[in-house]
């Protein structure tokens, strides 16, 4: 009897836990990682006192482009289950499950990860040494890319039968057509971020003046590298530009960060290959600015004179002393003119009231008759 | 000098200091002041200025809580920028129309021999003396206001400010709209050109708006004696008491040229003189 109740209790506890998050469909989880990672509270408190969660929300994960990737394709360093504490993070240049039909090799994000690593933002996942100290503030892949979900519109409308029926003729498992279509259609569509999203993303770092000042100091101290004049206020100064103001209102076509700092031959490749402006391959290198501005500036009329326009304007003394002093003079003139006129008007009102003018709707005369 | 002219001059000499308190006035206006062209120009400036301000301010003050709703009220950035540019074109046209009116009007007056520089908006040394005199009057140090011409000092200040401000707005706006063409045309470093345009365009706009709201509108609507409004911008006429008080020298011309007005004012003066006796 005691054995029976013990079994019943274990069953009830398991049933309770299972009820928390019933699996909605089979993830690529042959090794049953979710047996532990399905629990919401699963995590640790790090020695620094930071709470870290290792919970995986299966229903959400199943809607993502990585839903068919077995966990250990990315978390390859896990050799046994249950595993020991992990000190190595996932990198995006590992090879995963999909066989590339062109090369017959396993798919990997390595080509774009390699491009990114050479860019001005490039860094190792776990930076080390002096370069590592400089790189620690730079963004790694997951800073910009979350695990993207499939197109929500298609989830609502369902799969196009006229396409998936054809797939199902040979691919008997309908899951294939579903995942293949959802994965591919998301890619075929224009998935460029909107201008406001790009600016917001870049400004996450490029408006963090404390972090940027630290970065500037580290670059100079450790790498003896001088940063650009506007490095610490690139985001703030962009916000002062006309480009930023109309982009904020959703105007398509106004230049955002990537329109100028990225060579747009292949936008998706180029956004990972942002270079320092002193790099001759950068679109904002002095030798390339005319062509970069010509991309938008009308009729291809932008020339050497045009590119002197400052796309990151400020009124800081260190950045633009001309405007710093001009704005002081302008403000003095404007305030003097405005308050001078208003003051004069007040005096006039007082003087005329003393003279006998009436504060009423005019009907014939504004003056108190009899007052001479 | 004919007898009639002599009588007129005599009447002008007899005019009491505070005549403006003794006359009857039609709030809609008694004496012709502005031509139909000036009234059309005022209407065009008013409309274009209003829409320029209301579509431009949300861009400059884009962080303000009211900026986004105001911009949306006009259809979002795609349409507000078109509205802004259309009204900029209207304002530029109005400026050109005004300049043309002035040139042609002046040429006609020169041809007729009636041109008088004292009736123009050109600042004269007398304006400075009038300002000082008026300030003394406001402080109670003078008994009467100065005898001023068709355009008194404050109108000249306003006119010059509006002309200068409009010119700055048109030029800097053109720098924004055609930056590449401006870069080709102006042999100046575009860094400074565009930096200055970015400074001047919004600052000038805000200053103009403040001056219009707190000075011009006060002058023509709320100032004691003008409430609820001066109708000159619609009727082209000015109330007699206003003309005498602030444009006395132009009123003297009216007396010389208008027998009806002379007849009326003679009665007023006679009544005043009888009361004095």
Strand content of chain A: under 5%
Order of helices and strands of chain B: HEHHHHHHHHEHHH
Extract low-pLDDT stretches of chain A. 7-25
Q: Give a short account of the largest sheet of chain A.
A: 2 strands, antiparallel
| Biggest interface | A-B, 61 and 63 residues
Characterization of this structure:
The complex is a heterodimer of chains A (372) and B (277). Chain A is mainly alpha-helical and 372 residues long. Chain A is elongated and about 100 Å long. The longest helix of chain A is centred in the last third of the chain and has 35 residues, at 321-355. Chain A has a domain at 20-91. Chain A is built from 18 helices and 4 strands. Chain B is mainly α and 277 residues long. Chain B has a domain at 36-115. Chain B has helices at 3-14, 36-60, 67-73, 77-112, 125-138, 153-177, 179-185, 190-222, 232-235, 240-246, 248-257, 259-276, and strands spanning 31-32, 237-238. Chain B has a two-stranded antiparallel sheet. In chain B, helix 4 crosses helix 6 (153-177), helix 6 packs across helix 7 and helix 10 (240-246) crosses helix 11. Chains A and B meet through helix 14 and helix 18 of A and helix 2, helix 4, helix 5, helix 6 and helix 7 of B.
Brief descriptors of the model:
heterodimer, A: 372 residues, mainly alpha, two-stranded antiparallel ribbon, 18 helices, 4% strand, B: 277 residues, 12 helices, 2 strands
